[in-house]
Amino acid sequence: MFRSARRPHARRPPRILYVTDLAYPARGRRYCDEDILLTSRLREHFDLALCHPLDAAALMDGYDAVVVRNSGPVLGYQREYEAFRERALAAGARVYNPLTGRADMRGKQYLLDLSAAGFPVIPTVDRLADLHRLPAAERYVVKPKLGADSLGLRILPAGRLTGLADGTVLIQPCVDFTYEVSFYFVDDDFQYALHAPDPERRWELVPYPATAADLEFARRFVDWNGLGQGIQRVDACRAPDGELLLVELEDLNPYLSLDALPEEARDAFVGALTSSLGRFVQQAPVPA
């Protein structure tokens, strides 16, 4: 018989429902390993249960907070995800990340908005009539507004764009960048950066020594998003002229690539996440 190691009459730890798809087939990565690591550490501080994203709406009422982690792209279960959002918002449930994000959590319209506002973003349009706003290019990246994890992404010559740019996809010039780099934040606090030195092997990441200018770039987008709490990943590319350009602002369920970190940095991130969740569950429930 299993017995609790906690002292009798000790205050009950907060209950957390941890949402993850352990079987999601990510290319070149094992999302499940990351969630196994995180849940093994978080359970030292919380009463924690795992569930598939399709079960979250039905189970969430019995928990103090719902943590959405590596749940996979919602493109494959868009209706169920919207139902989860609606139920969580109606019930005032604590969802981490909070459902107020303005970036990937709501699709990729934000790339158009940021591009139009003059932010350092890869230039983006969604209609063929606006193609003149982009720098001239031989090839263009076309991806669905509701896509994620490169699902539906195509690289096409300009002559094959006709009929595609109907407002449901994004069009960007195919940038010959030097490398990609990602900046990871918890509750607006920078944690670490990783980059892929070889653009052809974008999932082979190594720690990146972020400069003050790099962090100023990344913080512009974190500040714009106004999330306040949760995990955010700012993905950027280094253009040939040395400028950083935003590729994606992931505020729904960013993969963290913790396996690419040295142990000390990984432990520091887990500590920051644990503290963040501890503060989060103590907050009053969100008003319905």
Account of the protein in words:
By secondary structure, the chain is of the alpha+beta class. The protein is about 25% helix and about 25% strand. It has helices at about 30-40, 55-60, 80-90, 110-115, 210-225, 265-280; strands at about 15-20, 45-50, 65-70, 95, 125, 140-145, 155, 165-175, 180-185, 190-195, 205, 230-240, 245-250. The strands form three sheets. Strands 11-10-9-12-13 form a five-stranded antiparallel β-sheet, with helices on both faces. It has a four-stranded parallel β-sheet with strand order 2-1-3-4, covered by helices on one side. A four-stranded antiparallel β-sheet has the order 5-8-6-7, covered by helices on one side. The longest helix is centred in the C-terminal third of the chain and has 20 residues, at about 265-280. It is globular and about 65 Å long. About 35% of the residues are buried. Residues about 1-5 have low confidence and may be disordered.
Helices and strands in order:
Blueprint: E1 15-19, H1 31-42, E2 47-51, H2 56-59, E3 65-68, H3 78-91, E4 95-96, H4 109-116, E5 125-127, E6 139-144, E7 154-157, E8 166-173, E9 179-186, E10 189-196, E11 206-207, H5 212-225, E12 231-238, E13 244-250, H6 263-282
Parallel strand pairs: 1-2, 1-3, 3-4
Antiparallel strand pairs: 5-8, 6-7, 6-8, 9-10, 9-12, 10-11, 12-13
The helix count comes to 6
Could you tell me the mean pLDDT? 88
- Order of strands, main sheet, comes to 11-10-9-12-13
Largest sheet: 5 strands, antiparallel
Classify the beta-strand content into a percent band. Answer: 15-25%
According to DSSP, the number of beta strands is 13
Q: What is the chain-wise order of helices and strands? A: EHEHEHEHEEEEEEEHEEH
Low-confidence stretches: 1-5
